[in-house]
Request: fold
Amino acid sequence: MKFNVSSTTLFAQLQSVSRVIASKNNKLPILDNILFDLEGQTLTLSASDEETTIRTSLEVENAEGAGKVAFDAKLLLGTLREFPEQPLTFTIDEQNFGLNITSANGIYSFIGVNGSEFPAMPEIAGESNRFEIAEGTLLNAINKTLFCAADDELRQVMNGLFFDLTPEQFTLVATDAHRLVRYTNTTAHTDAPASFILPKKPALLLKNVLSKDDAKAEVVFSQKNARFTFGTTTIVCRLIDGRYPNYNGVIPQNNQNKVIIDRQMFANACKRVAVFAHTGTSLLKLTLSPDSLNISAQDISFYTSAEETLSCNYDGAHMSIGFKAPFLIELLNNIDSNEVMLELADPARAGLILPMENAENENLLMLLMPLLLQD
Reply:
């Protein structure tokens, strides 16, 4: 086999598929490799960790022959990483799977393995559901929720993103039991209610390879697997089995205390005051008074404290509530709106953080559990 290809184009595609390869592979040695499948003028690249498989294709020039050969991912990426943009010639011996990469200034040679040993991409078997969604919308949904997914060995269902679909809308949810994000969009839906839990790793992979444009991505899922197809890329992954918590049931309703405040000003003040918070609890105390929000923190062990008072739109009762600083700051940083609304009921119930402006067809809600105040 033989073909010519742009060094930068091939490197970008190899980088995308290599993200799925496990750093510590104790399963199949061939999973340390990337599969090259040449057919006509199309080169298809595949990589897998058994639970998630990604496949993408690109056009090459002057292709001769056809076949499948797998090459070590680290060696490929290490070889191509430092090349400036230039054409490369790949020559593959179909007998011993040897590879010669010829550049303008040199030749690089190593041995691959038989591509027929590479695991096939899993099929979506049994009863399945399907929906289409714009790549940019799916990317935005993942960006707004993935940071909130848990890392809990005892509750695996919390370690992924919950896709909840109805004939009216698409909802993506993530929670670690301390905070929750619910993203809703009305441009995607299924014919009948359906749901699945996507593991964190394929979600992160999608985050890295999805584009921001309006091109459609197709999602097909069954009880065990999901397949995402967009552009020239396909990702198939195993789903998390289990029942996701009733996320709507934990969202407090009829919160009488509502604060409207500039998001960036609020986030920056929290960052400054959080430096003085107790290292064990990272507690920020928010005290609400008419048209003002006081943010305070202290660490009695080191005799340090700080507070700032910000102007806001609030005409409710005087109250104080505590939140974990890193969680509050991260939620604020993942909202695009210039202003946010805090909806609070009492110091013992979860607070809601809502953008004052949502993009068309979407709705974002963030929830944060409070910390107990000592005073």
In short: The chain has a mean pLDDT of 95. Residues 155 and 194 are 21 Å apart (CA to CA). The radius of gyration is 25 Å.
